[in-house]
Amino acid sequence: MRALWSLALAAFWLGSGWAQTLTLYTSEILADVNALVEAFRRDNPGVQVQVFRSGTGEVVAKLRAELEAGNPQPDLIWFANPEVFADLARRNLLRRVPPTVQGYPLRYAYQGGLYYEVRLLYNVVAVNTSRVSTPPQTWADLAKPAYRGLLAMPDPNFSGAALITVGTLAQRLGFAFFERLKANGLAIEQSNPVLQQKLARGEYGLAITTDFGVRQEIAKGAPLAALYPRDGGILVPTPMAVTAWSKNPELASRFLRFLLSPQAQALFAERGYYPVMPGAPKPKGAPEQVLALGGVTADEGTLRRFSELFGLRR
User: Fold this and answer.
1) Domains delineated in the chain
2) What are phi and psi of 21, to 5 degrees?
3) What is the pLDDT of residues 192-243, one digit of tens each?
4) By C-alpha distance, which of 67, 134, 277, 301 is closest to 269?
5) pLDDT at 114
6) What pTM does this model have?
7) For 227, which of 113, 125, 199, 210 could close a Cys bridge (C-beta 3.0–4.6 Å)?
8) What biological processes does GO assign it (predicted)?
9) From the CA atom positions of the chain, what is the Rg in Å?
10) Helix/strand number for the chain, H first, E second
């Protein structure tokens, strides 16, 4: 009876135009976002979630254009550029959501709950095992002649994860590392999904890319492996925040907290991500523990040098 009443109430809200609506701007994989949205809507009948999804660069550009026009739209933002979140926090444009979920690691509730990690992902070296029999062991190994013409990565102007990889490796190995990769034939694809599909088809032998995406391709039968280099996988911050201008801040906060629930954390693991909550199941085939390098976003000068080196449009 309760289920029937919930369905009837949802139909009434929708038919009357009273449905509560959230708008989410994100760089996350759309199929993964949709799975989470549908799980949230099952627990919140009558709620609609409108999603704008693109690469981090395009999401940030859209958000900045709306802010400059004085008409920002999203209730929630979720993408891989922590510096943008820090800037919005300085301008008092994020709503504080108190970190009240029991057991949540407080180091991921940035600035006391202005923005949150809701799951963890790493940039790794993905290997097509049918093309590469002796994989690299460290990030520096990628510049070895044995891997000439085999390696690709996404465009950091489009991919936030790639932007963080460029910043992290430039800081640790120097920008000359990318010059060596260029000389060794490093190719640039627009996005992680495009790159991972080409890697799965054997167009490349190696890729600098996201670990969860590699696991998703492996689940489809691709001959891939996710290699966490000995010097560490690059932890890619991809925070979520409720915006200060949100028309439905309480509902938006509920969605954020839902992503930390056992149900949502299990969904993340099923789709190849490391959950952020302790005790949640790990993704199938993933190491129990990962040596993590803290991700550093490439600054404007480093991104400009990288783009000029590889002839990328900005």
Assistant:
1) 2-119+236-275 (3.40.190.10), 120-235+289-310 (3.40.190.10)
2) -125, 135
3) 999 999 999 999 999 999 999 999 999 999 999 999 999 999 999 999 999 9
4) 277
5) 98
6) 0.89
7) 125
8) thiamine transport
9) 20
10) 11, 16
